[in-house]
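ok so I'm stuck.
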Amino acid sequence: MVRGKIEIKKIENKTSRQITFSKRRNGLFKKAHELSVLCDAQVAAIVFSQSGRLYEFSSSEMKKTIERYGKFSSDYFVPGRPQVELYMLELRKEMDIMVKKIDLLEVHQRKLMGKGLDSCSLAELQEIETQIEKSLGVIRSRKADLYADQLLKLKDKERELLDERRRIREEEIRETLVRPMLPVTLHTEKNETLRACRTSKHSSDQVETDLFIGLPVTRL
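replied:
not stuck anymore, here's the structure
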């Protein structure tokens, strides 16, 4: 059976209110105990009943927990001090810490660049030298990788150029083999025609230049 949602308001019946107080108090202390065990937290709970009776729970000594709370309150929650002022104070503290860290980094950077080494001890100089050698090793490794990549790209480009040159050469050879066939054939036919004409003319000249002695003979 599903329980209905209970409206949160003051219980008017005194008996029901006392029963609810007892149950909720025990439940609150049980949850506080579970929180301290599961999360290894320091938990304390203080409850005063309507009649003024004190009920308390603490995962450790209540006195130590209260003292710790009092110290925390005195450090961060000064009476009369605005919360904005506390916030600005915390920001200033964080800013001072960051400025100190930046100053240390700048000093270390100058030392890595070979500046301000007069105040360094032998151990500090050795540490700086070790860091520089490590940095140089990383730089050389990266430089070698870039050279290797460029070399591969150049080899690929060279291979492409050789392939293109081979293709152009093969096309030139094919054109050279096909182009002379037609002119040779035409030249041969022309020579045969000239030779035939010369032979015919020579025969005609021989017939017409024969010498006949005597009366002309009628040729049929």
